[in-house]
Structure formats: structure tokens, C-alpha cells
Fold RND transporter.
Amino acid sequence: MKSSNSFNASDMADFDPRSGSVLERALFNHRIWVLLVCLITTVVLGFQTSRVELNASFEKMIPTQHPYIANYLDHQRELSGLGNALRIAVANKKGDIYDADYLKTLQQLSDQIYLLPGVDRAYMKSLWTPATRWVAVTEEGLDGGPVIPDEYDGKAQSLAQLRRNVQQSNEIGQLVAFDQRSSIIYVPLLAKTPDGKSLDYSVLSEQLEALRAKYSSDSIDIHITGFAKKVGDLIAGLKQIVLFFIVAILITTVVLYWYTRCVRSTLLVVFCSLVAVVWQLGLLPILGYQLDPYSVLVPFLVFAIGMSHGAQKMNGIMQDIGRGMHRVVAARFTFRRLFLAGLTALLCDAVGFAVLMIIKIQVIQDLALIASIGVAVLIFTNLILLPVLLSYVGVSPRAAQLSLKSEQAEQSGQQRHAFWRFLDLFTQRRWASICVAASLALAVFGFMVSEHLSIGDLDAGAPELRPDSRYNRDDAFLTEKYGASSDLFAVMVKTPAGACARYDILNKVDNLDWQLRSLPGVDSTNSLALLNRRMLVGFSEGSAKWYELQNNQAMLNMITASAPRGLYNENCSLLTLYAYLTDHKAATLTRLVDHVEAFAAANNTDEVQFMLAAGSAGIEAATNIVVKQANREMLIWVYAAVILLCLVTFRSWRATVCAVIPLMLTSILCEALMVWLNIGVKVATLPVIALGVGIGVDYALYVMSIMLAHLRRGESLSESYYNALLSTGKVVMLTGVTLAIGVATWILSPIKFQADMGVLLAFMFIWNMVGALILLPALAYFLLPSKVSEQAANTADKPSVNGQPTTKSQTTVDVAPLARSVSPT
């Protein structure tokens, strides 16, 4: 065999450079220009990568078009603090809050937090803010004032007065813990800082951690919860993704080299996949996008997809060079054979991402667009740039020979490798029947299990983080000490202006208040109606028999006038009913939403409307509803698009069925796995199944394209499948296992949703590979042979290379996915 690295003019003398498609001629006849354009693009976009930002936006992570969220946004200014807010619990480890040193620390911390950029200072609340007040009925009538006395001096008398004020403030269980050993600084946040920039949660989280470190001591402990802190912790944890990315690159590089034994081709495949990531990241700031805790994982997926396609191109060129072709001819022939299959596979990947656009949550739509950008650049870097580069550097002679080891062994009369013989069993009736029956049983079992798949969070705290994370420990502390989690569900009650205190309206609010308190998962409630009941008891010398909502409008008006503005707005046209929940699990939110919806349907009139929903739990309930609606719709669209693309590529509905059914089985089993692992369908996990379908179809496309071409040439199913295994099947197996190992390393991540995605993606990579190698040929046994036998007589002439008939070993790869001739003429 001639050296693949020496350019001999005689090798190319009979090759017509005008052969091939217009695209092939444009690329390979002007290779130096292709490389120059790619080099300039890489340099320019490489500089742009330094401008990529990692942040998140509260409004981008909620379904702003959902009616619940639309109601919240319409009244956002009147409901300040019911969306994005922090709860900072400051605990005295050596006593209660009635301690001068503790209160001094609390004041200093409160003052510093008050000055942080992005804090909605008008609605911030702690024991030291003037808005925190006590109210009592005395012999002289109503009396009240700030909880911290105006004359507070830290002495015993002031501390005793503070204790009495707290008891009369109704803040125990809200701002003050039940055991009165800690108190909360409640910090509503604005979407933008005073300089007009979006609030940077990573910076805010670092500022909060600096304050925690500064004021924590042997006697003071600080616990912080809230959306902003959770996102800040996510971003801090996700910065470690660089480490996982490096590990994945090392794993794939080592495994690819083990397979090829060729340094130059291995490095080229890795290089082109990394170039795709650079192009993707460089385009983001140009297009005005930034990475967030969900889309930050996309560059790895782009790298993984690039490795898969790049390995296929490298393998094809390696085999052709091993058969004696010059590296330029091998690159062009491989381009002819696999460009259409690769393009279709990438389009399926793009569809898997693009269908996420139907989910009306901007963070998911941004993820879809960022991923689509990555898939688009792969068309240039891995389908075009890689073959052009390999046409220059070729592969080592040893690697080229090793790539044909199985083929040469068969030609010399040796028995096929035991593993190939095992896979070939699934092209025979007995094993094909067993495989199809087992797959059907798995599908039925998986579907039955997947019926128990839940929407939303299934764990308390922040399920995106580990149960033992600092954030979840802080959340558990607040839940234990304050009798409720930070999950607040708010019902908005719209009334005519000035009518919020009307008895008939308050009576309906009171009825809903009482009903919600009896629901499982609701710890306590608060409303203007409940305040009226409590105030009437106070006016009646504490007699519990007066704990009633009186039909006395003058009394109601008087109580409303002195009520906190958080219970109603300035012009008395909006009431707010608060439900403090024990958790934000999907079942809790669904039960609450269904009850309020039913109550609203029965009680809404022209003058009063009960509207859902505000508060962190209300927003999450709306998100769950959107996710549930999008879950099946998304799968329908992604499968419809994949089926259409397969039909266009294969021109055969039978081949399409063989390619798609393994994907469907994997999707069903993945949902069953989510049930077993107690993972709900939510914003973090919703994209995984769609991505698994889009990426997983790559394997079926590469195997079916080669197999179908050989079948249409008149070969048996066994021969066709074996040839597909030798050309693309080996690489399908290689990339499936390698990429599964790469994402499986995510299990070690401190971010739980990244670990969950790693498990699910690894599962789908493996099962899609197994489906393409086992179930696909089994289905082909029942669907394809009878059809292709009719087409065998009409098959195009055998291809030729340089005007000479090809050997059998050459025809095993010199076929196009649709049985088109790969002759250079």
C-alpha cells in the first residue's frame, strides 16, 4: 500500500476533480480558501468568547405568558416581594434575640444589606425597619409603633420592651422564629440595579457570602434562602463544569486514540469539535445572549455531537486510505458517502433543540437557540472542515491497516469476530423475534411505570442542589424554626376601587382563607379577613368568642385603615391572600391550585375576581402547568420532525420505522428511569428527553444509511448489516459508550440537576446505541428484505474508482446512503 502521507501525482492522475456535487467541488477544489475562512472565523470568534457572561434572570426563568404570571406581572408593583426575594435568618446560637450584642449585629447586617445594589429598599423588612410594627388594644384604645422602640439603648428595659412589642406584632413565625432565637431580614430584589444593568446573581451571592463570613461567629449563625441565592450557588457550582468538560475531552481523546492508534486524526477530530464550541460561544455575545445555569451545559453537548460525527468521517477516510486510495480521494469519497447522513443527523439534532422553543419559558427558549447555533456550526466544522483537514494530513499507515482488520480477516477466510457474529444473530428470524418481543415487553413495562411520572419538584428545598448543600441546610433551618418553608402562595383578589373592605368581599376571602388552612401542605394563611377576626378579638379584651368576621362596615373600614399595606393596595382595589406552604412539591401545588381554581369559578363576579397566582410557590405552580402542557407536545413535534427527515433521507417508510422505534423505546424507558430515580419533569429536566431523541437518531441514521444502500444493491440483510457495522457501526458503538462515560462524570457534580442530566443522558446515549445495533436490524428483518428484493434488479451499476472496477472490500464503503453511485465520474 502507498503511504497515505506522500503525495504522488500518479495517484491523482486519473481522478477527475470536476466529479462530485457542486458543493464537493467548491470545497475540495478550493481547500486552502476553506481553511483560511475557518481560521479567520476561529480567531475572530475566539476573541469574542472572552465576552461571554454567565448569569440568570428571574423573569427569564418563569413562563411570563401564562395567565397566572401575567396576573402577577400586571400587579407586580403592588405585590413587591412576592416574586424574587431573599430571606436571611440571623440566629443567636447562645441565647434568644433579646440580646444587645445580637441586635447590634442584626442592625449592622441589615444596614449593609439595605445598601446592596438591586435591593428593593422600600419593601425590605427586618426587626430594625420602620415598617415592622406592633399593634395592641389598650384602655386608651389602639396603640402601636415600630417593634424596635424609638428610645432603644440596648439596656434591660429596652430589651423587655422589645420582647413585649414582638409578642404584639404578629411577626412570630414570620420575621421571628417560634423559639425566638433567630429573626429574618426579608429582602425583595429588583430586576435591574440602579445603573440599569440586570442584577448579577453571581456577584450578589458573593456579596452575601462575604457578609455571612464577616458576621458569623461563635454566637451568630446566618442562613440565606431565595431565588437569587439559589441561582448564585448554581452558578458557583456550575463553574466547575470546566473541570468536567476537560475530563470529558480527555476520556474521548483517549478512547478515540485507543480505537484508531493514530495521533494526528484523533487530535483533528477533537480539535474540530472544540472549534465548534469556540464558534458557538463566540457568537453568543455578538447575538446578545449569555449563558445561564441551564444552557451552560450546551457547549458540552455540542462537543459530544461533534465527536460523534467527526469520528464517523475519520473512520471512513481511514478505511479508504487503507484500501489504497490517496488521502484527497478518500476524503472526497467519505464526504460523498456521509455528508447527507451527517447533515440529516445534525438537522435532527437541531430539531431536538428547536422544538424546545414551544415552551414559553425564555430560559428554555434561549437554551434551544444557543444549542441550535452550536449544531449549525457543526455543519461547517465537522462535516466540512474535518474532511478538508484530513485530506491534507491523512492518517498513519498503521491506523489505516488496523481499520480494515475485520474486513481483511474475513477475506482471508477467517471467522468473523465473535461480537460481530453475535450482532448478526439479530438479522435472523429467531433472534429478531426474541428481540422485538423483548422490546415490546420493555415498552409496555416502561409505559406503565412512566404513568407515575410527576411534574415539578419532588423534594423539599432546592432540588437543583444536593440535599446536603448549604442552601438546602439553610432552607431546612427556616422550615423548622418558622413552621413553614419559604414557599409562599399568594391569591390576588381584584375589587372595585375602594371596595376591598366590603363585607361581602371579605366574607368570600374569609371562606377561601379557612378552606386553604385545612389543605394538606398549607401551614398557615394571612389575609385582611383574618386580620379583622384577630383585631375584633383584641377590641373585645381577647375574648375568643369574638373571633368572627362582623357584618359591620364601619368596624371593617376602621381595621382596614390601620392594616399593613401588604394585605391590600393603595386604592383598596386589590386584596392579597397569603398561603404559607410546608413545601413546594408538585402534589402540594397541584392540590392548592385546583382548590383555588374551583373556588374562583364558583365565586367570581363582575365586582370580585380571585386571580392566581403570586409568590414563589404560585410562580412555580404556573411553571409546572406550562411544563406539563409542553411535555407531550414537545415529544410529538420532535418525533414528527425526525420522522419527516428520515423519510426524506431514506425514501422508505419501512426504514424510517426501523430507525424511529428504537428511539421511542428509549424515550419510554427514560421516563420510567426518572420515576425510579424520583426525578420530576421540570425546567431543568424537560429538555433531556427531546435532546435524547434528536441526538440519538444519529446512530440509527449512520447504520441504516449504509445498510439500506447495500440492501438496495441486492445484498442480503446479514451482509448489508455486517458492512454497515464495519463502516459506521463500530464508530456508533465507540461514540455511544464514550459519550455516556463523559456525561456520567456529571454524577460527581455538586449541582444535582447536572448530575440528574448526566444520568439521563448517559442512559439515552447507551440505549439509543443498543437500539441502533440490535433492535434496528431485528425490525429490518421483518420490514425491509421483501421490499429491497424488488429493487435489487433496478440497482445502479457497481461504482468504479479511477475507471477500474472496485473490489468487494471497496464497494462495502463506496456507496451513498440512498444507493447513489459514488463513482468520481
Notes: The chain has four domains: 1-51+240-402, 77-236, 417-451+651-792+803-820, 487-622. The radius of gyration is 33 Å.
